[in-house]
Amino acid sequence: MLRQAESMERTPDTEQSDDIDDYGRRRPEIFSSFAKELGLCFAIMSSQVMAEYFISGFNVIVPTLTKDLSIPIAESIWPASAFALTAGSSLLIFGRLADIYGGYVVFIGGLVWSFIWSLVAGFSQNRLMLIFARALQGFGPAAFLSSGVMILGSSYRPGPRKNLVFSIYGGCAPVGFFSGIFFSGLSAQYLNWRWYFWIGTILTGVSLLLGLFFIQSDFHARQKANSMAEVKMDWAGGVFLFSGLILVVFAVNDGAHAPQNWGTSYIIVCFIVGIFVLGVTVYTEGWYAEQPLLPSSLFKVPQMKALITALFFSYGVLGTWLLYTTFYTSSIMGVRPMQLVAWFLPFAIGGLVLSAFGGLILHKAPGKVFLAISGAAWVLAPLLLAIAPPGASYWAFIFPAMICGTIGIDITYNVANVFITTKLAEREQGLAGAVCNSILFLGVSFFLGFADLTAQQTEAYGLRKSYQAVFWYAVCCAAVALVLILTFVNVEAARTEERADDQLESGSIRES
C-alpha cells in the first residue's frame, strides 16, 4: 500500500525532474564507454594545459632570451603579449567557425597550427622572427580553446557530472601554468631557452594525437543542423573586431615605452583609430549584421553583462599578478629559475585539489558565494606582495599569495564556464567557449599594459617600490571585480537543469 501511495503521489513534473537529475549524473549517451569519455576529456584538458604553458613559462625565459636575441628591455613585453593579444582578439571568430563546421575540425586545426608555430618559435634568430612566431602561435589556442569548451559544453547536460568535468578543466589552468614555469626554468638553467618551445611542441603533438583518436568528428552533424538554422560567418564583424582590439591593446601596451609615452603620435593615432573601429563593430554587430558574432541574446541573459565585466577585471588581475610575481621573486628576492618552480608548486597543487572537490560542491551553494570567495582571494593575492617588507619570507607572504591565486583563478573560471555554457543553446556552444576564453586573454593583455605603465611611472622610486605599485594597482582592479560581484552578480547554484535548448522546446522560457 505504501509503494502504491508513493507511486500515486508521483506527478509527471516529479518524474520529469527525477529524469533530468539522472541525466545530469550519468555518462552521456555519446560515449559508448567510460574509457572514451575519459579519453575525450583528457584530450581537451591537455590542450588547456598547453595554452597556459605558453603563457606562463615564457616569462621565465625572457631574461635569457632577450640577451641572446639582443632585444631591448622596452620591447621585451611584446613577445609575451603578442601571443595573448592575437588569441584574445580572434577567439570569437573561431567560436563562430566551430558553430558552423563543428568543434572537431576547429579543435584539431588549432592544435596543428599551434604545433607548427611553436616549433618555428624555437628556431627564432632575431626579435622580429620571435614576435611574428608568437603572434601567429596565438591563433592556435584561439581555435582549440573555443572549440574545446564547445565540445565539453555540448557533450554534458547541466548537473554534477558537468560540474566535475568543468572543475577539472579549470584545474588544468594552474597545472598548465606550473608546467610552463617548470620546463622554462629547466630550459633556462640547464638547457637552452629554445627547448622551452620544442618541449611545448612535443606536448602539443601529444594533445593532437589524443584528439585525433578520442574525439569524434561532428562536421557532418553540424552541417546538417546548419542547413536548417543557416548559421553564417560574420566576416565584417570579425575583421572590425579583430582590428579594433589589436590597435587599442597595442596602444595600451606600447604607451609606456614609446618615445614620448602616451603623447607619442603613433600611440594616439592607434588608440583613437582602434576606438573608432570598435565603435563601427558595435554598429555593425547591433544593427547591420545578419548573424553577429556577439548576438544581442547573449547580453539579454540575466547577470551576463555584470559577470563578463567582473571577469574582465579578475582576469586582468591574474595576468598582472602572475607576470609581476615572477619579476618580483626573480629580481628582488633573487630566486633562481628552478627555485621559482618550487615556489609556484602550491599554485598547481591547489588547482588540482580545487578541481577534485569543485565538481562535488558547485551545486551545493549559489554561484555568487563561490565568486565572492574567489573575488576576495584575488584581492589578497597581490595585496600580500604589495605589503611585503624587504627580506620577506616565502611562508609568510609568497605561499599564502599562491594559495589565494589558485583559489581565485580556479573558482572564477569554473563558475563562469558552467554558467555561460548552460545559459547558451547547443548551437551557440562555440560562442560560449569563445566568450569564456576571450575575456581571459583580453583581460590579461589589456590590464598588463596599464600595469607596465604603472611600473614605468614609478621606477624612480626603485625597482622594488615600482613592482609593489603594480601590485597595488592589481588590488584596486580586484576590488572593482569584487564590488561588481557582490552588487550586481547573482549566479544561482549549478544544479541539474534543462539546457537552454530543452527549455525553449518545453516552453519554460522564451527566446528574446
TrEMBL record:
It is a multi-pass membrane protein. Residues 1-24 are annotated as: Disordered. One of its GO terms (cellular component) is membrane. Keywords: Membrane, Transmembrane, Transmembrane helix. PROSITE patterns: MFS. Residues 1-13 have a biased composition (Basic and acidic residues). One of its GO terms (molecular function) is transmembrane transporter activity. It comes from the Eukaryota. Coiled coil: none annotated. InterPro entries: MFS, MFS_dom, MFS_trans_sf. The chain crosses the membrane at residues 34-56, 76-94, 101-123, 129-152, 164-183, 195-215, 235-252, 264-285, 306-328, 340-362, 369-388, 394-419, 431-450, 470-489. It is found in: Membrane. The keyword Cell membrane does not apply. Residues 32-493 form the Major facilitator superfamily (MFS) profile domain. This is MFS general substrate transporter.
